[in-house]
Amino acid sequence: DSPNPKVLSRAVGALHNLSSEAAAIRVVRQQDGIPPLVKLLDADALAVSGSAAGALQNISREVASRLIIR
């Protein structure tokens, strides 16, 4: 958790970009990164919640990850 919204926005944005690759999706799932992304959907900053939503959309392409998102 970063108290700095700009840092958080950039970090989640990076995850959004990385989640376009299957290998990165596996790493996010294996490192329990999906639940924190789901929590970030409620972030006040639209850049944060939007990037979290985009990352989850990408991650949901993997069946194993989709089961966790539910």
Looking at the structure, what is the overall shape? globular
Largest sheet: none
Strand content: under 5%
Instruction: Give the class from helix and strand content and strand pairing.
Output: mainly alpha
Number of helices: 5
Following the backbone from N to C, one meets helices and strands in this order, namely HHHHH
What is the percent of helical residues?
Answer: over 70%
- The first-to-last residue Cα distance is 23 Å
Radius of gyration: 11 Å
Mean pLDDT: 95
Low-confidence stretches: none
Question: What's the number of extended β-strand segments?
Answer: 0
What does it look like?
- By secondary structure, the chain is an all-alpha fold.
- Helices cover 71% and strands 0% of the residues.
- It is globular, with a radius of gyration of 11 Å.
Provide keyphrases for this structure.
mainly alpha, 5 helices, 0% strand
Quick take:
The protein has 70 residues and is mainly α.
Task: Explain the layout of strands and helices.
Layout: H1 5-18, H2 22-30, H3 34-39, H4 46-59, H5 63-69
Helix pairs in contact: 1-4
